[in-house]
Specification:
Elements lengths: L1 E3 L5 E3 L27 H9 L19 H12 L2 H4 L1 H8 L1 H33 L6 H10 L3 H4 L5 H32 L8 H15 L5 H27 L15 H15 L2 H9 L13 H24 L16 H34 L7 H22 L3 H29 L10 H31 L12
Antiparallel strand pairs: 1-2
Helix pairs in contact: 2-10, 2-12, 2-13, 4-5, 4-11, 4-13, 5-6, 5-11, 5-13, 5-16, 6-8, 6-16, 8-9, 8-14, 8-15, 8-16, 9-15, 10-13, 10-14, 11-16, 11-17, 14-15, 16-17
């Protein structure tokens, strides 16, 4: 969708379907938004006068909207990827007691910050009288109405958010390729002559390109349902067959990890729990977006199930494998057993399917924000070229990933500390700023300031520790606790 002012400056919305935003019902217009040539009075009026009768949810016209159930299925699949299989390794870094408590806290924090972001976006849409705003442009228009010290950064905000989103989602896709290829390799090596991991990735390249050609979330819903079913069955098999069998005493495990290792736990858990790009895209594409929030809304139900599963896998996985817990618990399964091999193949299929959902976000950002309006002819052909390019980039980067667990921690700390925690708090401050609506004793301002500090601290410390560990992994030292990829 596009909002144009008299100077032809465009406010791009984030269409979830890949149809061109310049067509028919995907276009809304409003005069004098963000016009710098003598329309400041109109801007002030827009910021002060809010039409209480305008409900952005009622004005959305999505070509292929998803139902509440379909959205929940996508939400679960978006968060039940390789991250949950890395939780035993995360608990090894945090210790049992800290791992359980911190996972609940981080899960609640991620859920709360997503609520903050969705509510702030809704308020901005109502203020601007538009049905939908993307995450990057929510940041931009929030900063424009925020404190004077941050207004100057508003033109650059969309690029910053897009950059974090693209890096994170491409990082997920890289991790997925490594995961699928590694699990398939462990199985096929038992029956045929071993092939290099890069060869397995090359074999996967064409299927990955083809599944990334699916152009809307409605068509992805059946695939996500299948992937969810496979994931739940696989997790159940791992718990019952391997983790619950011959458990060592809990006293053999550390209850509290070191502060340095906790940063690795933080990055891994944040990576696993916080699928902010996918979740915002899901909310934007819902048939009934008002059902997304609320105490019994889609978001809370989905995140509750996810946190419980993460704690179960992390807790019992660490008790079972201890310091031997690898970047994915499937790497700990006996390679020669048929049951273990079937589990690895099941998860490889589930994560392969989920690749399309994760790659959907960077494709939409690149295509709808930077390419679609610049291309006049053969749009479909060029869109498929964009989807192919994204897949090729993730394939090339996946070849260079040395260690799965460390890169999961890196991407979680680097991108999600900002996208999932700090940025929503900044947006809420700026949205509430014109009306000074921070509650008694400015409690909302203090709360958001603490979230910003926490997010930035997690970004700096977690990224630093992850990079140091990745550099160490290049040294010729035996890595017995990590899978050789």
């Amino acid at each position: 969708m596009i909002m144009e002012n008299s100077e032809k400056e465009c406010l791009r919305m984030e269409p979830i379907d890949s149809q061109s935003p310049n067509k028919e019902n995907n276009e809304v217009t409003a005069d004098c938004v963000n016009n710098t040539d003598g329309v400041n009075n109109v801007e002030n009026m827009l910021s002060q006068i809010e039409d209480t009768d305008y409900d952005p949810h009622m004005h959305r016209d999505r070509p292929n909207p998803t139902s509440n159930f379909e959205t929940l299925v996508h939400l679960l699949k978006g968060s039940l990827g390789t991250g949950i299989l890395a939780m035993p390794n995360a608990f090894y870094n945090s210790g049992l007691v800290v791992g359980v408590i911190a996972t609940v806290i981080i899960g609640a924090l991620c859920t709360y910050c997503l609520h903050v972001l969705v509510k702030a976006q809704y308020k901005l849409c109502k203020r601007l009288k538009v049905p939908i705003l993307s995450y990057p442009l929510s940041m931009k228009y929030a900063l424009e109405k925020g404190p004077r010290c941050v207004k100057w950064f508003s033109p650059y905000a969309p690029g910053l958010v897009d950059g974090f989103m693209i890096i994170y989602q491409l990082g997920i896709c890289c991790v997925y390729i490594v995961f699928v290829a590694s699990n398939i390799k462990q199985v096929t090596d038992q029956y045929w002559a071993p092939l290099d991991i890069s060869t397995h990735m090359l074999i996967l390249l064409l299927p990955l390109i083809l599944i990334n050609y699916i152009r809307n979330l409605k068509l992805l819903a059946p695939f996500s349902t299948l992937a969810n079913l496979i994931t739940f069955v696989g997790l159940t098999m791992i718990l019952i067959k391997y983790m619950f069998q011959d458990l060592p005493p809990i006293s053999d495990r550390e209850m509290f990890g070191t502060l340095r290792n906790f940063s690795l736990y933080f990055g891994t858990t944040l990576f696993a729990l916080e699928a902010v790009g996918v979740i915002i895209a899901l909310e934007n594409n819902m048939k009934t977006p008002q059902s997304f929030g609320g105490y019994c809304g889609v978001l809370n139900i989905g995140m509750t199930v996810i946190v419980i599963l993460y704690i179960a896998i992390g807790l019992f996985g660490y008790i079972k494998y201890g310091s031997d817990a690898k970047g994915s618990v499937t790497f700990n399964l006996p390679p020669e057993e048929a049951m273990a091999q079937s589990i690895k193949i099941m998860f490889a299929i589930a994560i392969f399917i989920t690749y399309a959902l994760q790659a959907y976000v960077p494709v939409e950002i690149l295509w709808t924000t930077y390419l679609d309006h610049r291309i006049q002819n053969r749009k479909i052909l060029w869109e498929y070229a964009c989807r192919t390019f994204v897949t090729l980039v993730t394939f090339i980067l996946a070849i260079a990933i040395p260690r799965l667990g460390l890169f999961i921690s890196l991407f979680g700390a680097l991108c999600l500390s900002a996208l999932g925690i700090a940025f929503p708090a900044i947006i809420e401050i700026c949205v509430l700023w014109p009306e000074n609506d921070f509650g008694p004793f400015k409690i909302m301002l203090i709360k958001n300031f603490l979230l910003i500090v926490f997010g930035l601290l997690g970004l700096v410390v977690g990224t630093y520790v992850s990079i140091v560990e990745i550099i160490k992994s290049f040294k010729p030292v035996p890595q017995t606790d990590l899978p050789s990829l």
